[in-house]
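Allow me, if you will, to draw on your knowledge of protein folds for a short while. A protein sequence and the structure tokens that stand for its backbone fold form the material at issue. I would ask you to consider whether the tokens describe a fold that such a sequence might reasonably adopt. Thank you for your consideration; the sequence and its tokens are set out here:
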Amino acid sequence: RQVTVDGVTHSLPRPFMVLATQNPIEYEGTFPLPEAQVDRFLMRIRLGYPATDDEINVLERQQFRHPFEQLEQVVEVEELNQVQEAVKEIYVSPALKRYIVDLTHQTRQHTEVYLGASPRGSLALFRTSQARAAMQDRDFVLPDDIKALAVPTLAHRVILGPGARLRDLTPQQVVEEILNSVPVPGGDPTSGAFRVAAPAAAGGFSQGEE
């Protein structure tokens, strides 16, 4: 939230956000960001190609003019700041906080990973899960919020080892594998009395209090 130029530090206004695009095919004239800078991006979202109906809609919307020409402001700065502060009030149970940290820790312990997600990854997953819950009119986070955002918030922070790259393994696949292996808390997400269900050694499930 600050920039230093020639030894002079300038505080940035609130809110301050950086949106960047990346072409996954061509790097001519551009360079991949260093790991420390990539780690400072809250999320990385892969758009891919639009569905057929969406692409037809793109054609129709640009037949006579570009939609950018009709864009209007939808929120005031102060309103956005208030929403950002309100999101922080969304309840996250102790069990779900541990679940978030467990997922992040597993990225550091995975055999195919050279460098796992930093604590910024845990914080990103924590905060975006709160935001997702708020967007769905809930004042508490569910495990599904965390699972839905694990890949966008953690995968770009994972650096794979040489063997994984040779096998065309992706950071996204690693995070998805971790999601399938880490036990998911179950119970009442509003009470803090969660219990963790883990696969038992001989099949079935065992219960342990968090």
Remarks:
- The helical segments are 35-38, 52-61, 77-87, 94-109, 119-135, 143-154, 162-166, 171-181.
- Strands lie at 2-5, 8-11, 113-115, 159-160, 185-186, 195-199, 205-209.
